[in-house]
Design goal:
about 240 residues, Glutaredoxin, Glutathione S-transferase Yfyf (Class Pi), Chain A, domain 2, 4-stranded mixed beta sheet, about 55% helix, globular, Thioredoxin-like_sf, GST N-terminal domain-containing protein, Glutathione_S-Trfase_N, GST_UstS-like_C
């Protein structure tokens, strides 16, 4: 049986495997809703020119991935993972045979209140590992990533954990505090139920760590000394492709 024609064109960041947490959120949404899509990998230097082409009025700081183009009329393009999830729910409805992705309207409050600053802590912890392991070497992404992140942190990528994070032990303790909401949620969850977009938000960050460093992924899975992350990743596994 032939595969159905794609209804969405999904632009993901290049790399040996999917790694960007924002792009993983969109990948999870597409997979969960079972929307046929095709993937095109973008290098970091190619993001801004594509955004300028697709979104001529967009200021350059908003030139980011993920990006989707809906291929059926009315065709449209959008970047930013949570608005993308909202758009996918609006365009691909239960009435048309697609799952409704729950929790999309809750993730902003979750991000701003329960896990505020989580992404920044993770980035300090794994930024050098991302540079070493998650990026393609021949498309300019590694050079772009090093230059822009070293400008942001004001030090070499190799030094971020110590200079900006206070050391790995400090960063892990910060993660325990900032991700406490996930731990509480998983205490009430057996990992068998239907995932929400909030679950996909958390799982995307786990995927980010895993693509950067297997060693740090194991430390993350053991962060609380319980099955918090085991249950989370079991819950999202069917859509983790």
């Amino acid at each position: 049986m032939s595969n159905p024609s794609p209804l969405v064109h999904f632009y993901d960041l290049s790399g040996p495997q999917p790694w960007s947490p924002a792009c993983w959120r969109t990948r999870y949404a597409l997979n969960y809703k079972n929307i046929p899509y095709r993937v095109e990998k973008l290098s970091y230097p190619s993001i801004a020119p594509l955004c300028q082409s697709l979104f001529p009025a967009m200021p350059l700081p908003r030139a980011t991935v993920p990006i989707i183009q809906i291929l059926e009329a009315p065709q449209c393009a959008l970047n930013d993972s949570t608005p993308i999830a909202q758009l996918l729910n609006e365009r691909f409805t239960e009435g048309d045979g697609y799952r409704d992705l729950k929790g999309v309207d809750e993730v902003r409050a979750y991000e701003d209140e329960e896990v505020r600053g989580l992404g920044g802590v993770i980035l300090k912890w794994i930024v050098y590992d991302v540079f070493e392991n998650a990026l393609d070497g021949g498309d300019g992404s590694r050079e772009y990533f090093r230059r822009t992140r070293e400008e942001f942190f004001g030090c070499g990528l190799e030094d971020v954990v110590g200079v900006r994070g206070g050391g790995e032990a400090v960063l892990l303790e910060e993660l325990r505090g900032r991700w406490a909401g996930l731990r509480e949620r998983m205490r009430r969850d057996d990992g068998e139920g239907d995932p929400t977009y909030v679950d996909f938000y958390d799982a995307a960050n786990v995927k980010w760590v895993g693509a950067a460093s297997e060693e740090k992924l194991q430390k993350l899975m053991d962060l609380y000394g319980d099955d918090t992350f085991v249950k989370l990743m079991k819950k999202v596994e069917p859509w983790s492709r």
